[in-house]
Structure formats: structure tokens, C-alpha cells
Amino acid sequence: MDVQLQLDLNEEEERGFKDLILLCNQEDKTNYDTALDYDFFYSIRNEEKKESGLKEDYLAILMGYKLGEQEEGKDILLCTVFI
Question: Would you say residue 1 has pLDDT above 70?
């Protein structure tokens, strides 16, 4: 399994990320926004769909952005994870 850092998403990736968020919303009975207004993304692709039992293209995504503040000289990030 490879984890990829991405700064920009193509249409396929965007669709796959939104599908995973919608699945998490459905399973957890939550209502997270599917807007992808983040500075960076880490993703794990679902390369073995038969093995995982999931039809979605991604197993996990971490999305984050800089808050524009610093603590001890380091940027503060806000991150959201869907698995």
C-alpha cells in the first residue's frame, strides 16, 4: 500500500474522495461536507477491491490545511481523516 501526498486533485481523484466521504457519512450517520477545499491530501488507494470488500477507489484519505497561525515557529494544521 502506498500513501500519496497530493496538492491538487484530478476529476477521478476528486470523485473517489467524495465517494469515500459519502460512504463514511452513510455508515456513521454523519453529514460531513464533501467539499474538498484543502491545501493537501494524503490518500491510500483501494488496489485490492476483492480483498477489501469495498467498491470505492480509496481506503483512506487525510485532508488538511494551514490555519494561518504558528506555534513555536511552526504552522498549525487542521486535518480531517476518512477511513
Answer: no
